Amino acid sequence: MQCISCGKKLTEKDKICPKCGKKQPLAENENITRFPLLKSLSPIFLLIGLVLVPLGLTGIAFLIFISIQEKISVLRFIIGLVNILFVTALPFILAYIFKQIK
What we know:
This protein is mainly α. Helices cover about 60% and strands about 0% of the residues. It has 2 domains: about 1-30; about 35-100.
C-alpha cells in the first residue's frame, strides 16, 4: 500500500502517512458505519413491527367482520386489507433499509 499523496510505502495499519501526514482512505475490507444513529434505528423498527403484527391481524379480522355485517364492496375490502398489510409491514421494511446503511 502506498500513500495517495507522496507515494511512500505504508503498512496496512497506517491511517496517516508518516512522511507527509496525509490521511489515507480506508481499506476495502474495513467496515465503518457513517450513519450510526440511522443504523441503530433498525432494532427499534423491528420492535414496532412486532407490536403491529397482532394489531394488523386484529384489523384484518375486524375488516372481515365488517365486510360480512355491512356487505361492503370487494374494492373497499381489498383497499382496507392492503392498508393494514402495508402499515404492518412498513416497520420491517424500514428496519431492513436502516440495517443496510453504512
